[in-house]
Amino acid sequence: MRTENEAIAPFISLVRLVFTLTKEIIEAYENVQCIKRTCGTLVNRVKAAGITIKVLMREKEKYLENFRDENYYNTFLRFTNCLKQIKKLFDDVSQLHKFIKFISSASIEEKFEEIIKEFNTCSNDLNLTIYIATQNHLNNDLKILHNDMIEMYKFLQMIECGITDTANNNEITMNKLEIQNNEIKFIAENIVVGNERLIEMNEELDGYKKVYKTINYLLNMRINEQDSIRAKDIKASELQDPPKYVPLRLGSRVKIQKKVFNAIEVACKPIPKYIFPMAQKYLATLEKLGACPYIIKFHGLSVIATVKVIVIEWAEYGTLRDVYQNYKINWGAKISIARDICCGLAFLQSVNILHHDIRCENVLINEKIQPKLCNFSFPSEYYEKKILYSRHNITNWAAPELFNFFLTDQNKKFRKSGVPKYTIKCEIFSFGMLLWELAFQEIPYKNMSIIDIEKLVSKGYREALNLGLNSYLIKEYCEIIKLSWQQDPSLRPGIQSLFNKLQGLYEKNILKYKGTTVDVPLFPVKVGLEAHKDGNYKKAWDIFETNADVGDMLAKYWKGYYYLVGIYINKNKSKAMKLFKKAADAGNADAQLRYAFCLINKENKNINAIEFMKYLQLAADNNNAAALYNVGDIYFSGKLGIKRDKEKGIYYLRQAALRKHARAKETLDKNNISIEY
Description:
Elements: H1 4-31, H2 36-58, H3 64-67, H4 70-92, H5 96-105, H6 108-125, H7 135-164, H8 196-203, H9 209-221, E1 239-240, E2 249-250, E3 255-261, E4 264-270, H10 276-288, E5 298-304, E6 307-313, H11 320-326, H12 331-350, E7 363-365, E8 371-373, H13 383-394, H14 424-440, H15 450-458, H16 472-484, H17 495-510, H18 525-533, H19 537-549, H20 553-565, H21 573-585, H22 589-598, E9 600-601, E10 606-607, H23 609-621, H24 625-637, H25 646-658, H26 662-670
Antiparallel strand pairs: 1-3, 2-3, 3-4, 4-6, 5-6, 7-8, 9-10
C-alpha cells in the first residue's frame, strides 16, 4: 500500500492547476460582456469548489483511500478539464464580436447545460459537497440563461434594425417576438415535471436566426489588416463646389471644406502627411463601417490644392458639442441621440473595434438630428501616442484606470511603462461621461485643471447629477450614467445592457411623440451671451427674453440677472427672484447661487437661513465654486446658527480651492490647511 506522501503526490500538480484555473476564471468573469448573470452562476460554483478542495487538502488524512484510488485521480483530471471548458466559455462570450460568432456556430444552451452537468458529476464523485446543483438549481440557472439570452437577442435585433433600416431609424419599434425558428431552443431533456414556465419561456426565444446572421455577415465583411489594403482614391475633379457658398468650417484642429461628390454633400478634412501612410488601413476599415447609420460614412481620400484630405459625409449641424452650445436640446432628442450613439458603439464592438475617444465633439449631427460617430483613434499601436499628445483633450472623459499612463507634468514621462490597456470598460466609462455632457450641455469638469480632474476622479468623485427635475425619464437616464462611470471597471455594464435601457426609455417616453427634434430658436442663447460680452445689451436682452419665454433655463437665469442688476431694463428684484427660482429648481447652479443670496434682506438684515442653505447647498452640489466656498465657510466657522463642523467645512473649502476660488485658498492657507486630501 502506498504511503500518505506517495498517495498525495500525483494530486499536487492537479490541485495547483485547479487554483490557477479558479483564479483565471474569476478574472475572466470581470471581462465578460454578454450573459454575465449566467456566467455568475458558474463562478459561484467554481469558487465554492475551490474552497472545498482547500479543505480537502488540509484534511487529506481523512481521505487517503480516495487519494489511493485511480478512478478518483481520473475524476480530478476530468474536473480540471471542466474548469478549462468554463474558462473557454467565458472567453467566447467575453466580447460582443466573440459572442456573435459563438452563437452562430454553437448552441450556448447546450454548452452551458453540458458544462454544469459535468461539473456536478465531478464534484459529486470527488465528494465536493458544497453547492452541487440539484435539478431544480439547474432549471433556475437555465431561467437565468434564458433571460440573459432574451436581453441579448433583443439587443441584437435592435442593432440589426439600426444597420439595415436607415430610412426609419428614428422610428424603430420593438414588435412582438414572432415564433418561427426551431434552432434556438433550450434542451428540455431532464426538465422536471411541472416546470411549464421554463418551456413557455423557451418558445419566446424563437425567431432570431436572421438577426445574428446579418451581424455575423457584417463582422466577416470587415477587411483584413494586410499592408496592401488601401482606401479609395477620389480625383479632385470629382469634388465640386456646392451651389451656395459655404465658408470653411473650423474643426477641432483643422478647417473643413464642404464639397459635392456624386451629388452627395461631403466634408473634406485635411489629414497630416506624416500619418497618411499608416492611415490607409484604418481608413479602408472605416469605409466598411458605413453599413451602420450611426457611424460617419467615409467615401475616400483625395488631394485638394496639394493638401491630402479624407472625404466623409457632410453633417449639417457640425458636432454634437456645436449643437448643444448653440441650441437647447429637448429631452426627447437627448434620449434619441444617446440611444443612437450607443447603437453605433455597439456596432463597433460587434466588429471588434473600440473608438478610444468618446465625447460630444467626436459625434457629428446631420440635418435629421441623427448622430454619427467620427474621429476614431488609430489602431492600438498608435494609442499610446494619442495619450501622449492628446491628454488635455481626453482626460475629462477618461476612465480612472487610464490615468497612470498619462504623462506627468514634471518629467514628461509616463507614470507607468507600457501601452495603456484600453478596454470596452474604458469605452463604457467615457460613454457615461458623454451622457452627462449631453444632459447638462457642457464639458464635464470644465473649470478644473487636468491634474485636479485626475485626482478627484481617481478618488471616485464624479460630476453632480442634480438636474433639479423629478421626471422618471431623467431619473432613469441618470441611473444609466451612474452605472457607466462606476469606479470598479468590472461593475460597469456591457454595451448591450446600456442600449436596452436607453431603448426602453425611448420606447416608453419618446416614441409616442413623433417628430422629436432639437429646438432651434432664431437666435440661440450663445448669441445672446456674445452680445452681452460685447456690450450690446439690447440684443442680449431680446435674445434672453425670447428664449426664456420658451422655457430655456439658462436664458431665464440671464433674464433674471438683467432684472437684478438693472442692465438695459429697470431693476426689479422680485422678478429676478422668480426667474432665478425657476432656473434654480431646474438645476442651474448659477441661478441656485443667485437665488440663495437674493434671500438675504440687507435692509433689515433678515435672512431665511433654511431656504438660503437649501439653495446654496444645491449650487455647491452642482460644483459652483462660490457656493462651495460659502458652504465651507459656514460649516468651518459655524455661521447662521449652524453647528460648526470643521471637517465638513474643510472638505467644501478644498473643493472650492481646487476650482480656483481665491478666498477658499486664502482661508485654507490662513489656517495652515493643505489643499491636498
